[in-house]
Amino acid sequence: MEQQNQQSIQETARSKPPVKTNWKPRRNHFGILRGKYLAIVATAAILAVGGVLLFSYLGKSPGINPITSAQCRQIEKEIDILIKQASYCEADGDCVLSEEAAYPVCGCPNVINVNTDVSKILEKKQEWEGSGCGEDRPVCSPCVPPNYNTCQENRCVGTHYRPTTMQELKGYPELYKVMPELLHGHKVMVEGIYRWGFEDSNFDETADSQEYNIWVEVNEDTKLEGKPLNFHKAAFVGGVKLDAKHEGTAKVIIYGTFQTGKSENRIGYGHLGLWKHQIVVDKIVFESSGQGVEAVTSKIAYSPNEEVVVEIKNNLAKDIWVQGLCSVPFTLQQYNAGEWVNYGPDPTIDCIAAARNVKPGERFEYRINLAQVYGYKNFQIGSGRYRFLFRYSFANLNLVGQKTQLFDAFSNEFTIGGTQSFQFNARIVGSYASPGESSKVAILGNIVYLTDISQGLLAVDVSDPTTPKLLDSFKIDGGGAYAVSVSGASFQPHVLVGGYGSSKVVALEEIMYPDRKLNLQLLKESNAKRSVQEAVPLIDYTYFLAIDGPEFEVYDALTGESRIIAGTPGGHILDFAIASGSPGVASVWVPMLLAAQGEKGIAIFRVDGLPKKDPRLAEVLTLEGYTYAVDVDEKNMGYALSGNDIIVITIQPFGDQKILAPRGRLSFDGGAADLDVTNGIAAIAMWDKGVKFIDVGDPDNLKELGVIDTPGRVRDVELIYNANKNAYYAYVADDRDDLQIIEVRR
After folding, report:
1. Does residue 640 share a domain with residue 559?
2. Residues 573 and 642 in one domain
3. What 8-state DSSP symbol labels residue 174?
4. Residue 33: inside a domain
5. Phi/psi class of residue 566: alpha, beta or left (left: φ > 0; alpha: ψ in -120 to 50)?
6. Which residue of 220, 398, 406, 463 pairs with 446 in a disulfide if CB–CB is 3.0 to 4.6 A?
7. 448 and 595 in one domain?
């Protein structure tokens, strides 16, 4: 039956000509072509066969023969693989545009790693040419190379932004009748003046423009290059209320997508829909942020009668003119009540002088005796935190009638008066941009583990604190990461990560290759009893988890097994630290667990016998205020943040006497999130107020050393002492402003 159906189909197909024509061959009733029509067909067949034989005889083949063509495709595939391998990156600075890395057929330059050895790519391209693959090269369209290179998911990506002008963007509505789709939705690159502040994110030719033309839309993915400290991304992304310290202007280059309305009745952009257009920003390059033009003092601590040496540096690729004033080109500012204010009488008021031209790479000094400059008319400079403000322009300030824009730049902070100021020298030396919001930080050796509440865990190489580099990352299934703890006690270092807003717990094994390539391998994935807020390792694969409640959890990262341990009734365990003590036998190490219990103060647990025995509550110390963070230093001294105080806690060996005893105390303004203590210095995460450093060398007499403000909100801090450099390094999870690295010297 099936054969009959197939035969019927074949016969039907033969009965229908594939193409309808006016010429129809005549057949007899047997289906055979009649006389002259048969002759015509036969003649055509003979000519076709003869043509093929003639081409073969003359050795003329149209295009590349099949064998050569296959070889070419193979070589092209190998070139493609080499170029893709060359696009690996860890940061935007790794990516460059390369002519050598262009594909052989109509290939435009590709974006590859700056350290790529392109010799192998060139060898393959020469092999491609030598095989005759380029003989029938097609006519190629002109290349439009990218002008903006980024590192996305460890791959170099090039994007083309159309260079444009502010006038072109602002004049766009007049072009509706001619070209309504000219720039809307296109990537643009434009230079102008950016003004930000309360309900304002305006982009125009001048900072004082009152026209609502172009709104600057900043998002979580916006990259910031040369960002000034008074620009706070969180103010735009997260709705942080802007105050005076978050307002400013700067000359910038903006890369982003231009958007505008389609009709006269369109709803505008930005606050209250007042702006006619907007740019959804991919990247902002601040040309006048203080990183390009700097004022650096010779020291960070001075006496009231001491001469201050200030060096101005122009690190930009263009001339600047520093505003000319008779005395000094500076206004002294003091940090008072959480903000910077101009200090005392201005010694340069009503005093005009020629502006100083500063060439690219040029630097010069001013020497100022603070007592002489600011100490007149019964006004004496007092002790405190200070900085200098000075102004400059890209236009010649000495030319009358020229339209100019002045930019503010600030010196580093320094202190005047007091003895403790001479012991503290701190500055931000490096940073690494996390994709989302950073929450917790942990460090092992030269690797910092940073949690991102939307993107997961980042492993960052900080062997050079000034240029941190991403080694590897791990995204938790179902969301980001919040808590992190790392242990190197076992044979192979491992990391425990708690999921953001969930009870997910992930244990990772750290595999480090000789060329400092890190691979985070999944060891175990399971669930905690509740959401993990903090984690601390004991030994081997045992971790203690603060699980947002009055109990805590003992967790085995190797097996995923866990058990609940009760704390003080009515308490709320928020943080842990491991201490060690002696039960009377020096050779036996007995660990103890110090726990912050909120309104119930501090608890200490004896945890000998782990993992076979449960931790046993040994003692509770009630403190004034809500206890939310604890730490233990290398001398087995405990520390607690309770209310607005840092408290030193003596931890005694187990015996008849009390284990916990409070000693020194120091109060500070504002709330805090975390602390870390090492080698006589405590670092306190102060949310919007930066990182506060405390001298705890004398447990009974704590001294505040200073505060370093960060761009964002400090949520967590880890402090490490580097004996080789005789310096401390604070690694800060700075919310939306990424990983910040602070160097502290005494």
Report:
1. yes
2. yes
3. G
4. no
5. beta
6. 463
7. yes
Going by C-beta distance under 8 Å and a sequence separation of 6 or more, which residues neighbour residue 440?
Answer: 450, 451, 481, 482, 483, 484, 715, 716, 733
Q: Which amino acid is at 187?
A: K
CA distance 170 to 188: 13
Amino acid at the residue 677:
V
Element (H, E) at 42: helix 35-58
**187 located within any domain:** yes
The answer to whether 155 touches 89, Cβ cutoff 8 Å, is: yes
Q: Are residue 470 and residue 589 in the same domain, yes or no? A: yes
Spatial distance between the Cα atoms of 292 and 310, rounded to a whole number of angstroms: 16
Q: Which amino acid is at 536?
A: V
pTM of the model: 0.49
Based on the fold, state whether residues 172 and 152 are members of the same structural domain. no
Residues 476 and 613 both lie in one domain = yes
* Phi–psi pair at 494, nearest 5 degrees: -145, 160
Helix, strand, coil percentages in the chain from 3-state DSSP, rounded to 5: 15, 40, 45
Closest by CA to 233, choosing from 426, 13, 436, is 436
Q: What is the identity of the amino acid at 332? A: L
Token pair for 522: 């999944």
Tell me the pLDDT tens digit for each residue of 654-679: 555 678 999 999 998 878 999 999 98
Query: What is the C-alpha separation between 415 and 425, in angstroms, rounded?
Result: 10
| Token pair 């994709």 in the structure block, residue | 435
Confidence of residue 736 (pLDDT cuts 50, 70, 90): confident
DSSP string, 517-544: -EEEEEEEEEE-SS---EEEE-STTEEE
**309 in the same domain as 264:** no
